[in-house]
Design a protein that fits this description.
Elements lengths: L2 H9 L7 E3 L10 E6 L16 E11 L2 H16 L5 E4 L4 E5 L4 E12 L3
Parallel strand pairs: 1-2
Antiparallel strand pairs: 2-3, 3-6, 4-6, 5-6
């Protein structure tokens, strides 16, 4: 299973299975979550061996019809990722509130550092 699958499984219960990689269609029922890898901390050994773990920095975005819902799901997403036994996730940034003018979407975004076995 890929790390993307693992992240989706951890977050799916929070938004009735509406977790999407990269983006979602504008018509997607809210609330929903999108996520993407936005970097990481690569490890390369001098011996040229591939490490047994990779690191990715993943941004989790929550989208909802109101600020309170977006914030509550954002906090629940943090708990789901950091508390997961299927991956090693730590919080890499504080939550940022956002608003998409003209769309009615309230959002949050937060980055997590996640260690996982390479595919």
């Amino acid at each position: 299973m890929s790390i993307e699958d693992t992240i989706s499984q951890a977050l799916d219960p929070l938004v009735d299975q509406r977790v999407y990689r990269d983006n979602a269609r504008f018509s997607t029922p809210r609330p929903y979550i999108t996520f993407q890898q936005v970097g990481g901390e690569p490890i390369d050994y001098m011996a040229g061996a591939v490490p047994d773990l990779d690191n990715g920095r993943f941004q989790i975005n929550v989208w909802a019809d109101d600020r309170d819902t977006a914030a509550a799901i954002g906090r629940a997403a943090r708990a789901a990722l950091v508390g997961s036994t299927a991956m090693r996730a730590t919080t890499a940034s504080g939550m940022v509130a956002t608003w998409l003018d003209g769309t009615g979407l309230f959002g949050t975004r937060q980055d997590f550092s996640i260690w996982f076995p390479p595919a």
